[in-house]
Amino acid sequence: MDTMEKETFKTFSNKVLTGTASGIVIGLIPDAILNGIFEALTPYRSIFSSLSAVVGTMQFLTAAMIGVLVANQFKLNAIQSVIVGAATFLGSGAYSVSEAGITLIGIGDLVNIMLTAGFAVYLTRKLNDRLGSMTLILLPIIVGVGAGTVGLLMLPYVSSATSMIGHILNSFTILQPLLMTILIAIAFSILIISPVSTVAIAIAIGISGLGAGAAAIGVTACTAVLVIGSKEVNQKGTTLAILLGAMKMMMPNLVRHPKLLIPVILNAILSSMSVYVFNIQGAPQTAGFGIAGLVGPIQALETGTGLLPVFITELSSVKAHGFNRGMRA
Question: Which segments does the entry list as coiled coil (predicted)?
């Protein structure tokens, strides 16, 4: 790689966002689509238990996938891309280390994943071909271990910012129920297309009852806007991916077209009324999913109501307004 394309902060950030969005889809979609089905079928055939474990484990590789795909956006070669992927995983927070060994604990902090991947790419590009014949030996050490360590050092500070968001959201739960549902729905409708994990936030603050229902509705409201908007300008596969849970693939679009938040917020406000009227409830483990993998609807049905009828109503409402600008993936 003798020449490197010069990047501005904007183009560099957009490439990191695009690679991150693709990695999230690849890493999380199999579990979102199949895990609920496999778990339901497990009592009938033991093979479904193994299949559930496989798709569940795949999501732990999300950070590494993001790193590789971010590197691919910068046209790094195969060795460089894999090393960036390794550095991203090492700095992701997707694992914990104790005396008992290393334990996988989730996909990691998405904000930190993006920062680590970006730094690893920057370091790789700076080194370029300067390591010569020692590249195969030194690049994994300098970029893989080095950038991964920097990511780990940043993790507590980045995670504290996520925790701050959680505290703000938690403060909504003490408000009057209708106001609470509106604010939580708006917050989660925005978070689902940001680098912050709605699932991690929901579990961290232990949101439940109407609050969890409002969170799920907020995610669902955003999904409805993105599905209808994407349907007009993207291929069917892209729209289907969004419907199945890949809302975060629209992160780059949100950066380029912040006005996308207008229909998302308006739909979240309108949809949140249904939480209060129909007493839609949920649990911390389901609040951040919306309708992805039918996790939210199943939980809501167990408490006497559901999200799917509301989602269908939302689709009709959004379609009537024709929100589709800036939705091209």
Answer: none
Q: 183 with 316, same domain?
A: yes
The total number of structural domains in the chain stands at 2
Q: Are 91 and 112 in contact (CB under 8 A)?
A: yes
146: left (phi over 0), alpha (psi -120 to 50) or beta: alpha
Distance, CA of 122 to chain centre: 23
For the segment 207-240, what is each residue's pLDDT rounded down to a tens digit?
Answer: 777 788 888 888 888 888 888 877 777 777 777 7
Specify the length of the chain in residues. 329
In this structure, the answer to whether residues 145 and 234 fall within a common structural domain is no
2 is a domain residue: no
H/E segment holding residue 2 = none
**Quick count: other Cβ atoms within 10 Å of Cβ 285?**
14
Query: Does pTM top 0.90 for this prediction?
Result: no
State the residue range of the domain holding 181.
Answer: 173-321
Torsion from C-alpha of 258, 260, 262, 268, nearest 10 degrees: -120
- Confidence band for 10, pLDDT divided at 50, 70 and 90: confident
* Per-residue pLDDT tens over the stretch 23-44: 887 887 787 778 778 888 898 9
Same domain, 130 and 181: no
Cα three-residue angle 121-111-51, rounded to 5 degrees:
95
Residue at a domain's end among 116, 141, 161: 161
Tell me, yes or no, whether 168 lies in a domain: no
Q: What secondary structure letter does DSSP report for 141?
A: I
From CA 26, how far away is CA 6, in angstroms rounded? Answer: 28
3-state SS assignment for residue 157: helix
